[in-house]
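Worked example 2:
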Amino acid sequence: MDAYIILAVILFWLMFGLSIRHFSLYIREKRVLIEHISDVTYTDAFEKKAKKKSRRAVWFQKMTKYADEFSDLGQRINFFSENADVAEWLRKSGNPYQLTVERFQGLKLFLLVVGFFAGMISLIIGLPFSQYAVIFNPLLGYFLPIIIIRQQAKKRQEALRRDLPDFLDTISTSLQAGVSLDQALREVIRFFDGPLREEFSRFNYEIDLGVPRETAYRNLLERNDNQEFQGLIKSLLQGLKLGVPIATTFKVQAEDMRQLREEQVKELAAKASPKVTLVTTFLVAPVSILMIAGLMLLNLIYGENSIFKLFNF
């Protein structure tokens, strides 16, 4: 019996070692194949097409299914969220949750109803400030999607502005080396992440599908309101019409954006000085004066020259 057990253990470890070896060979061959596909199709094959969703994203997508029931009513009750404005916010934010205008409008009312019932439950249970929750929870539920989508649009445009100068320098260097614009865009965007990569990847797809270049440029303008990015696309449109060398356009735009960024940093530094002075005047100085006055008072009461000793108390 012991011999069978020992034989089984030996066979188990032998099979385990073979499985590890074959799995490593599979991973190596898969990586070689992916690299070959990436070189042939000019795409980043190692990009995670379906990223692991966070708990908030999964919860949000499940919740949006119930929002469809309120979509018709939500399009009528559109305070602070007209359909045209919502479409623009979704477009500029990249629409990470794949929302439509109808579903977004329904989501507001769904969260309003959820907030109302949550406030009523807290009132029945007797939680602190539950009488205010009945009023503020529905308002919070209504305005929460608006606030989130507008913040995402703002962050996306800021990320676009931050990465643009380095992107333009790299593109300009590639163009001066004799690479075509489309080829340079396909190669360079592989080394960038975020909205810049998304926008120019979509631009390349539109060009590959036969969309006129001018139309693809105007689509970029509609999806983004960043001033630097719009200035670049307008310069490319003008260069396309007038025949200006594209490499020169990218180089000049990169230099202008860096100069503009320096001016913005100087402006922020100039605005920070009065704020520091304000904090020093109304917070640091009074606290310091109170500490000094308190020490003087304690010394007057408990020190060697205390007033109690002078009067023999």
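Confidence is low (pLDDT under 50) at residues 45-53. The two ends are 99 Å apart (CA to CA).
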